[in-house]
Amino acid sequence: MIKGIIFDLDGVLVSTDELHYKAWKKLADELGITAFNKEDNEKQRGVSRMESLEVVLQKGSKNYSQEEKEALAERKNDYYKELLQELDKSAVLPGAFDTLADLRKRGLKIAVGSVSKNTPVILEKTGLADFIDKVSCGLDITKSKPDPEVFLVAAKKLELAPEECVVVEDSAAGIVAAKAAGMKSLGVGPYYQSLEAVYEARGLDEAIDWQTIIEA
Ligand code: BG6
Ligand code: MG
Question: Hey, which residues are catalytic here?
Answer without folding.
Answer: 8, 10
